[in-house]
Specification:
Elements: H1 6-16, H2 19-32, H3 41-74, H4 81-84, H5 88-94, E1 95-97, E2 108-110
Antiparallel strand pairs: 1-2
Helix pairs in contact: 1-3, 2-3
Length: about 120
């Protein structure tokens, strides 16, 4: 199993955020589907209001989570410890411009494993 990175964490946070879309989908389903047509209006309103509240609550929680993630990035909480062992000279020598990139844009290729 490969080691997860901050990019994996960010992706997983973003995937969790879809729970608010799922709640909105259920909200529309309950509001529009014929199965729920016979339900008393006060029951439907109560259920739909709870779902709106849940969606808003999760939006707030995910906003807070993502702000914490961004703060950790600024504090360099996710630095790659493996790279901390390299001196600046070793680090500079570990990478070289990709000759196939061409033009003004140069991609960087990690050559540490090939030297």
């Amino acid at each position: 199993m490969s080691k997860k990175t901050r990019f994996d964490l960010e992706q997983e946070i973003m995937e969790c955020w879809t729970v608010t879309k799922d709640i909105e989908t259920l909200y529309e389903y309950i509001g529009d589907h014929e199965f729920f047509e016979g339900m008393k209006p006060e029951h439907t309103d109560k259920i739909l209001n709870i779902m709106i509240g849940m969606s808003q609550l999760y939006e707030v929680k995910f906003d807070k989570l993502f702000k914490t993630f961004e703060e950790c990035l600024q504090l360099n909480e996710f630095r790659d410890v493996e790279f901390d062992n390299y001196t600046s000279t070793e680090w500079d020598q570990a990478f070289e411009p990709d000759p196939t990139a061409g033009g003004a844009i140069q991609e960087i290729v990690d050559n540490r494993d090939t030297k």
